[in-house]
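User: tokens in, sequence out, please.
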């Protein structure tokens, strides 16, 4: 069984405020996306990687990833306006030999090998596997007028991370019937098609770069990992 990897890097990163895109932001001397790609160096089952970018960023991304030594092929393609469109384009670019695909946010540069291993360990048992962490804050459901409707039990709530693992067949089948709907991750897409999604423990340090303050946290995490 062979594994494909899709890294989504086509987002504009408006909340972060980087004109060149947040994945091109420097972290300890090299772009975020380089760190992200390096996290998969030891995933020996991966044979192909597709990175989706915004139109016009193909050349700059290709130059960055060409400096990263990984044991699998890497191809840069133009993604869609929405993340879900980018992933669908990435799946379409995958070789027919790929049975499973990992979908990862380009702006999550510190995913640990333990998460990748735990995801792959479940691939023979489930069509969809995602890492999650417990929600520690109290969550409120509000209406259009910002009035609280209810407070869900946080013991049953989880925050979702990436990478997420799917069988290629699972995703392609879901695209045929649910691709026209808006969803925030591929797990939500396949859930809507009745697929059971398995969760594994995520990691609180598996941060997604969203706001400028996140960069400082990532620098601390990466520095601590490097010093081990």
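Assistant: Sequence out:
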């Amino acid at each position: 069984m062979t594994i494909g990897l899709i890294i989504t890097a086509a987002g504009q990163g408006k909340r972060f405020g980087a004109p060149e895109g947040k994945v091109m932001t420097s972290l300890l001397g090299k772009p975020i996306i380089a760190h992200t790609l390096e996290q998969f160096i030891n995933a020996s089952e991966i044979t192909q990687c597709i990175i989706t970018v915004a139109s016009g960023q193909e050349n700059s991304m290709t130059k960055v990833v060409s400096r990263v030594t990984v044991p699998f092929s890497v191809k840069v393609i133009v993604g869609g306006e929405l993340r879900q469109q980018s992933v669908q384009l990435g799946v379409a670019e995958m070789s027919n030999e790929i049975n499973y695909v990992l979908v990862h946010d380009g702006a999550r540069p510190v995913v640990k090998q333990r998460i990748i291993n735990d995801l792959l360990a479940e691939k023979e048992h489930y069509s969809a596997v995602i890492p999650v962490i417990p929600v520690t804050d109290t969550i409120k459901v509000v209406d259009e007028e910002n009035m609280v409707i209810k407070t869900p039990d946080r013991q049953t709530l989880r925050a979702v991370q990436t990478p997420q693992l799917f069988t290629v067949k699972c995703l392609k089948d879901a695209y045929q019937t649910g691709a026209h709907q808006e969803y925030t991750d591929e797990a939500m897409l396949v859930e809507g098609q009745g697929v059971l999604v398995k969760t594994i423990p995520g990691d609180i340090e598996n941060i997604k770069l969203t706001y400028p303050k996140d960069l400082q946290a990532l620098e601390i995490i990466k520095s601590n990992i490097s010093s081990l």
